[in-house]
Design a protein that fits this description.
Number of strands: 0
Strand content: under 5%
Structural class: mainly alpha
Order of helices and strands: HHHHHHH
Radius of gyration: 15 Å
Shape: globular
Number of helices: 7
Distance between the termini: 33 Å
Length: about 150
C-alpha cells in the first residue's frame, strides 16, 4: 500500500528521511537520531503530508509555509521552480544531491506520472541492495549494517 504522506512537497522522498526511518524502524538508527536531535525539536514524523506542530519539520521547513501561502501542493507548481527554484529550495536540492536524491528530477517525475507512481518508484529505489529493507539517507543500512556509500 502506498503511503501518500511520504511525498515531500519539495521533491523529497520522506520514506528515506532519517527521522522518518528512525521513527518507523526503531533500532540503532533511532538511538543515533536521539543523540543528534536538537532539544527544540520532537523526534517524530509520519511524513511530510501530515506535518503538525508535534512533528520534527514543523518549524524547520520554510517551503511548507511558502507553499501554503501560495495555495500550492508542490514546488513544481510555483513559477520560481520554472526559473530554477527559490534560494531556499536550491540550497535544499544541493544538499540532497550529495546523498543521491535529485529534488528537481523528483518534482518533474511527480508532475509527469503522478504521486502514487513516483512513490512506488522511490520505495523501490530506497531499499538496501543487501537485505532489501527500506533505507534512509544515511551512509549505511541500519537493518543489516551494509555500507551504502562513503561517509560524506
Amino acid at each position: 500500500m502506498i503511503n501518500k504522506n511520504l511525498a515531500g512537497r519539495c521533491g523529497h522522498y520522506c520514506g528515506a528521511c532519517s527521522i522518518y526511518r528512525a521513527c518507523e524502524d526503531g533500532g540503532e538508527l533511532l538511538k543515533v537520531m536521539k543523540t543528534t536531535c536538537p532539544p527544540d525539536r520532537n523526534l517524530y514524523c509520519q511524513g511530510y503530508q501530515v506535518v503538525d506542530k508535534t512533528c520534527w519539520p514543523y518549524n524547520h521547513c520554510p517551503r511548507r509555509a511558502c507553499l501554503e501561502a501560495k495555495g500550492l501542493e508542490f514546488c513544481y507548481e510555483c513559477m520560481e521552480f520554472e526559473q530554477g527554484g527559490c534560494e531556499e529550495w536550491k540550497e535544499l536540492a544541493e544538499a540532497h544531491a550529495k546523498i543521491g536524491m535529485d529534488l528537481g528530477k523528483n518534482l518533474l517525475r511527480i508532475k509527469s506520472v503522478g504521486v502514487e507512481r513516483w512513490l512506488e518508484e522511490q520505495a523501490q529505489k530506497w531499499r538496501c541492495p543487501s537485505c532489501g529493507k527500506p533505507i534512509s539517507e544515511e551512509e549505511k543500512c541500519y537493518q543489516c549494517g551494509v555500507r551504502l556509500r562513503e561517509d560524506p
